[in-house]
C-alpha cells in the first residue's frame, strides 16, 4: 500500500509542471487551443489524485491558463482544497488561484470561511498575510460578516505587517458589510496614529477612500489629518491626506482657509512633483470652495497658475498633461487667471501627444471670447484637416461645436460665419455621430437666430444640391436631414426655392445612394413644402405659367419615388403627388402630367375634386376666408390651403417640456368621447376634435351637433369620415399653425431636425468681419421674419447690447405655463458607498450596544485598546491582558448565538470548533471561563473597563508620545518617498 | 483605488493580469486587448496617461502605463490615486522584479508569473497601495521564500532533479531569446 503510494508519487513527478506547460504552449503556437485542451484534460486527471502536491501543481497550471482567458471556475473546490493545505508553498498557490478566479458571487465561498479564519489566526504572520491578500480579492458579504471580527483583531496585531494588511482589508469589509463600519471606526481612527508608518499610511488610505464618497462624515477627523500633514514626511501619505482635504474643503470653508498657508508652504518647499501637483489641486479645491473675499486669495490663484505654467512648459509630457488637467479645474472658478495663459494652451494644441492635445482642447472652452472665437475655430479647422485617427477628429469637432454653442452662442457674433463653418465641417470626413451633431446645430441656429435664416437656407440649398450631385458621406448623410428641413422651413427666396426642388427629389431618390432613409423622407416632404410656398408666391403674383412649371417639375421629380424601396419615401411621395395633382387639375385639367403621374388614380382624383367643389361647407369656408383675395386666386383657394399646411413657425422646446404639460382640468379620460356614448364607431380622429381644448380651431360643424337625431348623427358621421378620408385639407388641424398656439406638443419635432453646409469659405468672415457686420445691419430690417425676431430678442436684450451687431438668439425653450426648468434628480446609483454613509461622530450609545451588531464588537475592542496601551508599558503583560477581555467577547457571542437566532447575524457559528484550532484562544479560555457570564453582568463590566482605559490613557499618554517620537526617528530614513535609484522620476525633480 | 494591473508584451500577449474588481475571463481578455490597442499605438515620448478605455472604468478612471523594453505595465486607477505616484509605483514594481529575478526580462515573467504575483501582492492589496518601500518588500519576499524552501527540504530533491533534466535545453533557448535588459532600458528612459 505504502509502496504503491510512493510509486504513484514518483510517476507524478513526471507530470507537467507549470514550466512545462508554458514551454509546451510556446512550442505549439500553431495549435495552441488544441494543446491547452489536452493539458486541461491532464489537469483534470491530476486534480483527482489524492496527493496534494499534484493538486497544487495542477492548480498552479490552472492559474496560468486563467490568465490566458480560460474559465477555471469549475475547479473552485480543488482550489479550496489546495488553499487548506498546511504547507505554505501550496497555500500560496491556492490563494493565488483563488484571488485570480474567485469573486464575491462564487459558489462554495462559504466553505472557505473556517479555513480563512484559521489562516488569519495562524501564528506565522505570512500565512495570515497571505490569507488577507487573497481574501481582499474575493470577499463576499457573508465572508465579511463572519470574518470582520477576526480582521479587527488583526488590526491590533503586534506585527506591523499584519496590522497594515488588516487595516486595508477593513475597507473591503466595509464595502461588503457596512454594518461593520461604526464599530470598527474607533480603531481605524486609532491606527491613524500608529507608530508604524506603513500602518499609518494604510489607515490614511482607507479613511481617504471612505471619505471620498461620504466626506461629511469625516470632517471631524480634519484636526488629526492636519497634524499628520504638518508632521509627516512620507510623500505617499501626504498625497493621500492632501487629496482627502481636497474632498473635505467644499464642506467646510474654514478648513480651507486654514489649509492655504501650509499648502502654500509645501508648494514652495517640496521637491517631489507628485506632491506639488496634489498641493496645487487641493489649493484649487480650497479656492473654489471659499470663492473670493479672503486676503491673499488672488495671490494663491496666481501661485497655482504660475506653478502650473511651469509644469506645462516642462519638457516632460506627463507634467504637461497634469498641468493642463489642473488648469481645467481652475478654469471653472477663475477663468480670468487661466485666460492669461492662452498662448500656452494654444501652443499645446500643436503638441505631438494626443492626450495633451485633448486636454488643451478641453481648456479652450474657457478661453474663447467674442474676439478670438473665429481665430481659434480657424485653427481647429486646420487641425481637423490634418488630424489622423477618428478619436481626435471627433473630439475636435465636438469641442468646436461646444465652444461655439456654449451659453446660447454667447461668443458667436456672426452667425453666417458659424453656418459656413458647419457647412465646411460637413465636408470633412467625420463619423455619422458627428453628422448628427452638426445637423442639430444647423437646426438650432435656424430656429434660434431668425436673422440668419435666409442665409442658412441658401447654404442648405447648396448642401442639398451637392448631396444630389454625388453620394454623400457618412456625416453629410446625417446633415442632409437637417439641410432639407432648414431649406424648406426658412427659405424665402424664389430662385433658391425654385432651384432646390429637383435636387431635393434627387436626394430622396436612389441618386443619393446611401442617404439615410429618414433624411430621404424629409427630402420628399421638403420638396412638397417648397412647391407649396412657390405656388402661393406665384398665385399672389398671378403667374400661372410659373405655377404650372413648378407643379410639373415637382410631380416629375416625385414620380420615380412613387415606387421607392423605402416605405416612408413612397408614402410621402404618394401624398405629395396626390396633393399636387389636385392643384394641377384645378389649374389645368388637361395637363398631360396628370395622366402621367397617377394614371390609375385618375378617377379618384376626379371624384376628389368634384367632391371638393360640391362640398358647400368647405368651399364656402374657403371663400369666406379669402374674401376679396378669391378674385385673383387662380386655384380657387386650393393653393392657399396647401400652403397653410406648412405655415407657422416651429420653436425650440425646453427639455422635458412634454413631461411637464399639465393635464387639462376638464379632461376626463374615462368619459366617452362622443355624446352618443353607445356609438362604437367614433374614431380616434373624432376624439381629437372633441378634446378641442387642446387644439385651436374647433370645427364649425360641431356646434349644431346636438340637435341632430341619432340617424342624422350617424349619417353625418359617416359623411364626415368619408370626407376626412378623402380631403387633404383635413390635415389642417395637425398643421404647424395649430402647433403655434400649442407649442408644447410641437417643438419636439423641431429639435430633431438638423442641417448641412459646405465650402471652405469661413475664413472670409474673419477678414471682412467689420464690413460684413455693417452691411448686414442695414440689410436686416428688410427681413421678413423681423416681427418674430423682436419677440425673441426680449429675453436676450442685454446680451445684444453687449454684442453690438450680434444678432439676437432665442434662448431657452418653450415650457408649459407654470412649469419651471429643473433637472429631475438622477436616480440613486447602485453604489456600495451609499450604505457607508453613516454618522461616525455619534458615539456608540448604550442602547445601541444592545443591538446585536454592536454587541459583538465593543468588547473585543475595549480589550484591544487596553492591549495597545499595555504594549507600550510592558510587552510581556500585553498578550495575557489583551486576550482575556477579547476572549470574553468571544464567549459572550457564543452565548448570545445560543440564546437567540436574531442575534447571530455576524456570529461565526463555528467559533466553538475554531477554539480547538487555536492554541492561544484555548489558553485564554481557561483563564477567562469564569468571566463569561450573562449579558446583564457583562455590560457594566464593560463600561468599567472603558473608564479604566480612559484613566490609564491619561497616564500613559506621555509615555506613548515619547515612544512614538523615538520610533519615528528610527523610521525617518525609510519614510521618504521611495525613489527609483538612478532614474529621474517626475516626483524627484526639483522645480 | 487601483482597478486593474495588466502586464503584456509588445504584441499584446498577457504576462500578468490582476483585476481588483470582478470581470469574467472573456471580459478580462477583452479589456487586455482594448488596453493594448490603446497603449500600443502611442509613441514612447508621449505622456504616460491615457483617458478612455470604454470597457474598464469610465470617466473617473485613467490608464497609467510605462513601457519597458518588450513589456507594458498598465495600471487602471480612479481619481483617488495620484498619477505621478502610480508612475513611481510602477517603477518600484519593476525594480523589485528586477531585484528578484536579477535582470528581469520578459521570459522571467513568462515562466514565473506566480513569483511576479507574489511581488505584486506585497505592493498592492485589494486595489490599495500596501507598501512602496522596496527594501521592505524584498525582505518580506525573502522571508516567505525561505519558508517555502524549508518546507520543500530534501523531499523536493528528486522533483528538482527531474525538472533540471527537463530544462536541460533551456539555457540555450534562453540565450537565444534574451531580450534587452530592463535596467538598461530603464536608464535609457530618461525624463
Question: What's the arrangement of secondary structure elements?
Answer:
The complex is a heterodimer of chains A (991) and B (191).
Chain A: H1 2-12, H2 18-27, H3 32-47, H4 52-67, H5 76-83, H6 88-101, H7 112-120, H8 125-138, H9 141-154, H10 160-176, H11 181-191, H12 197-213, H13 222-231, H14 235-248, H15 253-269, H16 273-290, H17 297-313, H18 317-333, H19 335-339, H20 342-348, H21 354-367, H22 373-386, H23 390-409, H24 415-427, H25 432-448, H26 453-469, H27 474-490, H28 494-508, H29 517-541, H30 544-558, H31 567-587, H32 592-597, H33 602-614, H34 616-626, H35 638-644, H36 657-660, H37 684-690, H38 710-726, H39 736-741, H40 743-752, H41 763-767, H42 769-779, H43 786-793, H44 797-803, H45 832-835, H46 846-849, H47 852-856, H48 858-873, H49 875-899, H50 911-917, H51 919-928, H52 935-975
Chain B: E1 2-9, E2 14-19, H1 25-40, E3 49-51, E4 62-68, E5 71-77, H2 83-101, H3 106-111, H4 113-123, E6 124-125, E7 128-129, H5 134-152, H6 157-166, H7 170-177, H8 182-188
Antiparallel strand pairs in B: 1-2, 1-5, 3-4, 4-5, 6-7
Helix pairs in contact in B: 2-4, 4-5
Describe the protein.
The complex is a heterodimer of chains A (991) and B (191). Chain A is 68% helix and 0% strand. Chain A is an all-alpha fold. The longest helix of chain A has 41 residues, at 935-975. The two termini of chain A are 74 Å apart. Chain B has 191 residues and is α+β, with helices and mostly antiparallel strands. Chain B has one domain (2-144): 2-Layer Sandwich (Beta-Lactamase), CATH 3.30.450.60. Chain B is 50% helix and 18% strand. Chain B contains 8 helices and 7 strands; from the N terminus they run E-E-H-E-E-E-H-H-H-E-E-H-H-H-H. Chain B has helices at 25-40, 83-101, 106-111, 113-123, 134-152, 157-166, 170-177, 182-188; strands at 2-9, 14-19, 49-51, 62-68, 71-77, 124-125, 128-129. A 5-stranded antiparallel beta sheet of chain B has the order 2-1-5-4-3, with helices on both faces. A two-stranded antiparallel sheet of chain B has the order 6-7. The relative contact order of chain B is 0.14. Chains A and B meet through helix 2, helix 4, helix 6, helix 8 and helix 10 of A and strand 2, helix 1, strand 3, helix 2 and helix 4 of B.
Amino acid at each position: 500500500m505504502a509502496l504503491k503510494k510512493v510509486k504513484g508519487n514518483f510517476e507524478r513527478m513526471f507530470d507537467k509542471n507549470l514550466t512545462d506547460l508554458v514551454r509546451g504552449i510556446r512550442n505549439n503556437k500553431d495549435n495552441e487551443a488544441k494543446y491547452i485542451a489536452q493539458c486541461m484534460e491532464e489537469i483534470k486527471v491530476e486534480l483527482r489524485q489524492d496527493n496534494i502536491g499534484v493538486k497544487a501543481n495542477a492548480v498552479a497550471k490552472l492559474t496560468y491558463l486563467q490568465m490566458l482567458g480560460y474559465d477555471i471556475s469549475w475547479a473552485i473546490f480543488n482550489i479550496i482544497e489546495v488553499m487548506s493545505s498546511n504547507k505554505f508553498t501550496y497555500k500560496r498557490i491556492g490563494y493565488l488561484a483563488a484571488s485570480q478566479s474567485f469573486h464575491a458571487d462564487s459558489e462554495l465561498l462559504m466553505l472557505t470561511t473556517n479555513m480563512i479564519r484559521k489562516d488569519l489566526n495562524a501564528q506565522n504572520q505570512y500565512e495570515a498575510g497571505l490569507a488577507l491578500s487573497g481574501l481582499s480579492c474575493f470577499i463576499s458579504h457573508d465572508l465579511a460578516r463572519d470574518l470582520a471580527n477576526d480582521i479587527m483583531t488583526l488590526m491590533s496585531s503586534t506585527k506591523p505587517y499584519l496590522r497594515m494588511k488588516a487595516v486595508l482589508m477593513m475597507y473591503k469589509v466595509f464595502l461588503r458589510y457596512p454594518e461593520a463600519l461604526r464599530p470598527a471606526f474607533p480603531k481605524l481612527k486609532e491606527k491613524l496614529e500608529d507608530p508604524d508608518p506603513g500602518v499609518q499610511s494604510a489607515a490614511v488610505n482607507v479613511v481617504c477612500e471612505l471619505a471620498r464618497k461620504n466626506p461629511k462624515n469625516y470632517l471631524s477627523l480634519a484636526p488629526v489629518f492636519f497634524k499628520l500633514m504638518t508632521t509627516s514626511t512620507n510623500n505617499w501619505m501626504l498625497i493621500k491626506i492632501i487629496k482627502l482635504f481636497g474632498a473635505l474643503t467644499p464642506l467646510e470653508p474654514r478648513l480651507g482657509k486654514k489649509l492655504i498657508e501650509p499648502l502654500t508652504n509645501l508648494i514652495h518647499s517640496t521637491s517631489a512633483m507628485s506632491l506639488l501637483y496634489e498641493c496645487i489641486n487641493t489649493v484649487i479645491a480650497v479656492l473654489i470652495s471659499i470663492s473670493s473675499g479672503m486676503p491673499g486669495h488672488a495671490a494663491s490663484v496666481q501661485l497655482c497658475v504660475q506653478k502650473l505654467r511651469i509644469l506645462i512648459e516642462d519638457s516632460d509630457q506627463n507634467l504637461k498633461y497634469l498641468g493642463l488637467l489642473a488648469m481645467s479645474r481652475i478654469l471653472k472658478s477663475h477663468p480670468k487667471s487661466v485666460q492669461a495663459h492662452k498662448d500656452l494652451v494654444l501652443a499645446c494644441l500643436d503638441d505631438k501627444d494626443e492626450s495633451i492635445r485633448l486636454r488643451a482642447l478641453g481648456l479652450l472652452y474657457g478661453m474663447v471670447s467674442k474676439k478670438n472665437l473665429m481665430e481659434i475655430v480657424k485653427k481647429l479647422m486646420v487641425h481637423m484637416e490634418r488630424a489622423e485617427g477618428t478619436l481626435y477628429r471627433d473630439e475636435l469637432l465636438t469641442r468646436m461645436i461646444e465652444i461655439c454653442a456654449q451659453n446660447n452662442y454667447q461668443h458667436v457674433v456672426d452667425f453666417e460665419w458659424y453656418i459656413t463653418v458647419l457647412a465646411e465641417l460637413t465636408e470633412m470626413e467625420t463619423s455619422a455621430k458627428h453628422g448628427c451633431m452638426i445637423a442639430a446645430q444647423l437646426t438650432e441656429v435656424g430656429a434660434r437666430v431668425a436673422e440668419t435664416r435666409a442665409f442658412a437656407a441658401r447654404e442648405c440649398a447648396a448642401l442639398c444640391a451637392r448631396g444630389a450631385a454625388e453620394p454623400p458621406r457618412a456625416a453629410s448623410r446625417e446633415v442632409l436631414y437637417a439641410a432639407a428641413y432648414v431649406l424648406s422651413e426658412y427659405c424665402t427666396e424664389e430662385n433658391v426655392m425654385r432651384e432646390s426642388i429637383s435636387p431635393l427629389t434627387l436626394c430622396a431618390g436612389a441618386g443619393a445612394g446611401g442617404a439615410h432613409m429618414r433624411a430621404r423622407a424629409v427630402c420628399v416632404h421638403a420638396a412638397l413644402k417648397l412647391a407649396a410656398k412657390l405656388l402661393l408666391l406665384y398665385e399672389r403674383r398671378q403667374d400661372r405659367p410659373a405655377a404650372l412649371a413648378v407643379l410639373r417639375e415637382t410631380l416629375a421629380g416625385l414620380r420615380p419615388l412613387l415606387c421607392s424601396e423605402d416605405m416612408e419615401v413612397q408614402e410621402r411621395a404618394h401624398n405629395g403627388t396626390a396633393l399636387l395633382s389636385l392643384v394641377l387639375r384645378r389649374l389645368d385639367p388637361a395637363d398631360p402630367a396628370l395622366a402621367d403621374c397617377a394614371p390609375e388614380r385618375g378617377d379618384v382624383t376626379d371624384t376628389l375634386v368634384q367632391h371638393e367643389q360640391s362640398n358647400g361647407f368647405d368651399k364656402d369656408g374657403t371663400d369666406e376666408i379669402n374674401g376679396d383675395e378669391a378674385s385673383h386666386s387662380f386655384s380657387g383657394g386650393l393653393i392657399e390651403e396647401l400652403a397653410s399646411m406648412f405655415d407657422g413657425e416651429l420653436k425650440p422646446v425646453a427639455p422635458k417640456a412634454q413631461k411637464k404639460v399639465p393635464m387639462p382640468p376638464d379632461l376626463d379620460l374615462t368619459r366617452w368621447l362622443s355624446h352618443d356614448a353607445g356609438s362604437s364607431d367614433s374614431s380616434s380622429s373624432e376624439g381629437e376634435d372633441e378634446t378641442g381644448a387642446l387644439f385651436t380651431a374647433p370645427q364649425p360643424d360641431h356646434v349644431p351637433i346636438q340637435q341632430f337625431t341619432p340617424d342624422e348623427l350617424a349619417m353625418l358621421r359617416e359623411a364626415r369620415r368619408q370626407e376626412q378620408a378623402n380631403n387633404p385639407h383635413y390635415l389642417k388641424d395637425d398643421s404647424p399653425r395649430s402647433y403655434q398656439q400649442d407649442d408644447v406638443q410641437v417643438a419636439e419635432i423641431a429639435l430633431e431636425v438638423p442641417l448641412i453646409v459646405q465650402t471652405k469659405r469661413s475664413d472670409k468672415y474673419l477678414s471682412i468681419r467689420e464690413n460684413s457686420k455693417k452691411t448686414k445691419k442695414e440689410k436686416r430690417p428688410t427681413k421678413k421674419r423681423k416681427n418674430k425676431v423682436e419677440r425673441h430678442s426680449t429675453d436676450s436684450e442685454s446680451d445684444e447690447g453687449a454684442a453690438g451687431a450680434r444678432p439676437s438668439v432665442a434662448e431657452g425653450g418653450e415650457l408649459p405655463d407654470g412649469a419651471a426648468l429643473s433637472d429631475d434628480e438622477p436616480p440613486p446609483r447602485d453604489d456600495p458607498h451609499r450604505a457607508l454613509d453613516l454618522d461616525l461622530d455619534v458615539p456608540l450609545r448604550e442602547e445601541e450596544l444592545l443591538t446585536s451588531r454592536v454587541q459583538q464588537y465593543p468588547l473585543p475592542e475595549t480589550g484591544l485598546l487596553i492591549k495597545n496601551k499595555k504594549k507600550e508599558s510592558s510587552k510581556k503583560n500585553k498578550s495575557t491582558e489583551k486576550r482575556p477581555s477579547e476572549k470574553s467577547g468571544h464567549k459572550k457571542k457564543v452565548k448570545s448565538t445560543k440564546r437567540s437566532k436574531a442575534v447571530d447575524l455576524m456570529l461565526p457559528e463555528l467559533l466553538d470548533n475554531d477554539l480547538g484550532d487555536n492554541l492561544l484562544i484555548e489558553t485564554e479560555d481557561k483563564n477567562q471561563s469564569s468571566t463569561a457570564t450573562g449579558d446583564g453582568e457583562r455590560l457594566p463590566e464593560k463600561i468599567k473597563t472603558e473608564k479604566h482605559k480612559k484613566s490609564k490613557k491619561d497616564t500613559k499618554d506621555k509615555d506613548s508620545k515619547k515612544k512614538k517620537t523615538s520610533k519615528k526617528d528610527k523610521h525617518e530614513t525609510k519614510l521618504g518617498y521611495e525613489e527609483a535609484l538612478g532614474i529621474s522620476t517626475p516626483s524627484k525633480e526639483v522645480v | 483605488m487601483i482597478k486593474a494591473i495588466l502586464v503584456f508584451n509588445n504584441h499584446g500577449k498577457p504576462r500578468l493580469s490582476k483585476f481588483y474588481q470582478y470581470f469574467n475571463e472573456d471580459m478580462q481578455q477583452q479589456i487586455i486587448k482594448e488596453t493594448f490597442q490603446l497603449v500600443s499605438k502611442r509613441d514612447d515620448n508621449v505622456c504616460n496617461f491615457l483617458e478612455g478605455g470604454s470597457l474598464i472604468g469610465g470617466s473617473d478612471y485613467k490608464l497609467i502605463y510605462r513601457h519597458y523594453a518588450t513589456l507594458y505595465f498598465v495600471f487602471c486607477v480612479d481619481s483617488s490615486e495620484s498619477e505621478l505616484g502610480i508612475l513611481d509605483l510602477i517603477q518600484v514594481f519593476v525594480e523589485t522584479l528586477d531585484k528578484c529575478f536579477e535582470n528581469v526580462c520578459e521570459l522571467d515573467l513568462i515562466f514565473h508569473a506566480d513569483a511576479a504575483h507574489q511581488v505584486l501582492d506585497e505592493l498592492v492589496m485589494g486595489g490599495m497601495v500596501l507598501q512602496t518601500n522596496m527594501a521592505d518588500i524584498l525582505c518580506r519576499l525573502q522571508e516567505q521564500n525561505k519558508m517555502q524552501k524549508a518546507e520543500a527540504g530534501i523531499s523536493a530533491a528528486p522533483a528538482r532533479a527531474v525538472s533540471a533534466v527537463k530544462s536541460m535545453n533551456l539555457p540555450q533557448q534562453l540565450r537565444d531569446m534574451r531580450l534587452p535588459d530592463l535596467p538598461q532600458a530603464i536608464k535609457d528612459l530618461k525624463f
